[in-house]
Design goal:
Structural class of chain B: mainly alpha
Order of helices and strands of chain B: HHHHH
Number of helices of chain B: 5
Helix content of chain B: over 70%
Largest sheet of chain A: 6 strands, parallel
Radius of gyration of chain A: 25 Å
Number of strands of chain B: 0
Distance between the termini of chain A: 73 Å
Oligomer: heterodimer
Order of helices and strands of chain A: HHHHHHHHHHHEHHEHEHEHEEH
Number of domains of chain B: 1
Strand content of chain A: 5-15%
Largest sheet of chain B: none
Number of helices of chain A: 17
Shape of chain B: flat
Chain lengths: 464, 109
């Protein structure tokens, strides 16, 4: 195949990726879009296999089979609650692949004693740096999400200084490498090592609650790293595809930051939840009492409600109670009530996570409402049913300037005529902050395991 | 700066803006599948990995190429497959009619 024909083929693949992304703008067309995108990938791989440079297929075939089988196994076996971990791992693998491709180019030049042009040298260094940071950063994010390590921020004095020095060291070595005609091995390995340390250093000070931002950002890095390998091997298709992924991750991180009213810099370097967390909201717990409600009374309220808005939080997923929520909602609907779900952008452990968890439980997607769409509806709601959510309905975000979450957009559950909060106990939320909503006059608490409480509500509503 | 690099930068910048435009239109409800689909697309590095593994540069390149293909293919296959698995679960609110026939044939009834 001639190189120009090949280049057109890669362009066609990139166009298929773009069309695939375009169809992700609606759940109705998204699946077809994903297929289209995968056809683009198949095309790109096929074109590469007939490349003139490829002379032996044994190693390629082995890699394709092993990687494909592992990927399929992961995709089939992963639980939907573990999607953030899977995406974190995939981000890391993407980084690793870019690191290896960039590194291989450099090692080849070294072995052949070839001079590497300055621009090729720069892009190799970038692919290696970003790839290595993405790899280890993602592995730390994975470990935090999988609870292999504590979700608490790990901080120590002079941390930013150390990270800064490591970064400067990498830049210095990379520049030295680039201006040296024939690539040196020791600088290469040191850059790889330092970049890996930097990846760890950048993610350990970030708390578990901020992981949605981190995995979005690492998603972006993995794309940028792929784009850099495109520069390295001179492939426009790779540059386009990587850039698409790069901008996707950046936009998602911005959406997440906005949903938490924090700047990206604050998320990355603020070590949120390390020490300051409890200071702001601790005052309200003293001297106030919460009102508890029995399953029977709660069921009565729900059965006669015209509009019920469910506010699901990650606690719902932890209790594995999504099916029960859907059953309860269907019962209320059969009695003529309207049930909607209010999804806060950071309700799950990654952007859109809660929507997937509810879709898995057969909740139709047109009943899931974004924050801006549902907030005006709370005033009409007879009952706001808050299940395993806490910080995203904390009115302190609106009223208390001393609260760490002040300014964060929240779901207006407190505007509903009645609020039923289902919770295990009075523990603070993920951000470690007391919640005033629990002490409001219209609020009643239904303590216990969400799954059991919901099953109780289901049987009670049936009897009403 | 070489022409190839310059062209590459132009393409990179334009594609970044195109990506931003496309992603801005994806509804929040699909953000998780979007991320896993993005993982799959970033597996495009497999293209570079295949060249390294197949060009007969020597055993070190073979090993590096093999590993790079494995990592990239996990992204490609894992990303597309898990995205498909998620998107399959997204349904509209019409369970009763959905059981009777495919949604596209409603006009004929």
């Amino acid at each position: 195949m001639s190189p120009s024909l090949q280049a057109l083929g890669y362009l066609a693949a990139a166009v298929l990726f773009i069309l695939g992304l375009k169809r992700l703008n609606s759940p109705a067309t998204a699946r077809a879009g994903n297929r289209l995108s995968s056809i683009g990938m198949l095309l790109a791989i096929a074109i590469t296999l007939v490349d003139r440079a490829v002379i032996s297929y044994t190693v390629i075939a082995a890699g394709l089979v092993v990687g494909g089988a592992l990927g399929l196994w992961m995709a089939r076996s992963v639980k939907m609650t573990s999607m953030p971990q899977m995406v974190a791992l995939l981000n890391g693998f993407g980084g690793a692949a870019s690191l290896l491709v960039g590194g291989a180019e450099l090692l080849r030049s070294h072995r052949l004693g070839q001079t590497m042009a300055v621009d090729a040298g720069v892009t190799v260094q970038l692919a290696v740096l970003i790839g290595a940071v993405t790899l280890t950063g993602s592995l730390v994010a994975f470990a935090k999400l999988q609870e292999l390590m504590s979700g608490r921020p790990i901080t120590f004095g002079g941390q930013k200084l150390v990270s800064g020095l490591i970064f400067l060291g990498i830049v210095g070595l990379a520049v030295y490498q680039v201006i040296t005609p024939v690539p040196l091995l020791w600088t290469f390995y040191t850059v790889v090592g330092l970049s890996m340390v930097l990846g760890v250093m950048l993610v350990i000070p970030i708390g578990g609650a901020d992981m949605p931002v981190v995995i979005s950002l690492l998603n972006s890095y993995s794309g940028i790293a792929a784009s850099m390998t495109g520069f390295v091997i001179g492939n426009t298709g790779l540059i386009i595809s990587g850039a698409l992924v790069g901008s996707s991750g950046i936009i998602l991180s911005q959406i997440m930051c906005k949903a938490m009213n924090r700047s990206l810099a604050n998320v990355l370097f603020g070590a949120f939840g390390a020490t300051s967390g409890a200071a702001g909201g601790a005052r309200s717990a003293e001297g106030l009492t919460v009102r508890t409600i029995s399953v029977e009374d709660a069921a009565m309220q729900l059965a006669y409600a015209r509009l019920v808005i469910v506010v699901p939080g990650y606690g719902l997923a932890v209790a594995q109670a999504q099916q029960q929520v859907r059953e309860l909602a269907e019962l209320i609907e059969k009695r003529g009530g309207d049930v909607r779900y209010a999804i806060h952008p950071v309700a799950g452990r990654m952007p859109g996570h809660m929507n997937v968890l509810l879709a898995e439980a057969n909740v139709p997607y047109d009943k899931l409402y974004d924050m801006d769409d549902i907030n005006p509806e709370f005033e009409r709601a007879d009952v706001a049913l808050v299940i395993g959510a806490n910080d995203v309905v904390n009115p302190a975000a609106r009223t208390d300037p001393s609260s760490p979450i002040y300014g964060m957009p929240i779901l207006n559950a407190d505007h509903a005529k009645s609020v039923i909060v289902m919770k295990r106990g009075m523990s603070a939320g993920f951000a470690g902050i007391e919640n005033d909503l629990f002490y409001y006059p219209q609020t009643s608490m239904l303590f216990g395991d969400a799954k059991q409480s919901l099953s109780g509500l289901i049987s009670e509503v049936k009897q009403v | 700066m070489s022409d190839a690099l310059l062209l590459g930068i132009v393409v990179f910048v334009l594609a970044t803006f195109l990506g931003a435009e496309l992603i801005g239109r994806v509804p929040p409800t699909l953000h998780t599948p979007l991320m896993s689909a993005a993982n799959a697309v970033s597996g495009i590095t497999v293209v570079g990995a295949i060249i390294i593994a197949g060009a007969g540069y020597g055993w070190i390149s073979n090993v590096i190429g093999f590993l790079a293909i494995v990592f990239a293919m996990m992204n490609v296959v894992g990303g597309y497959a898990v995205t498909d698995r998620m998107l399959e679960m997204f349904r509209r609110d019409e369970p009763a009619r959905g059981a009777a026939g495919t949604p596209g044939k409603e006009a004929g009834r």
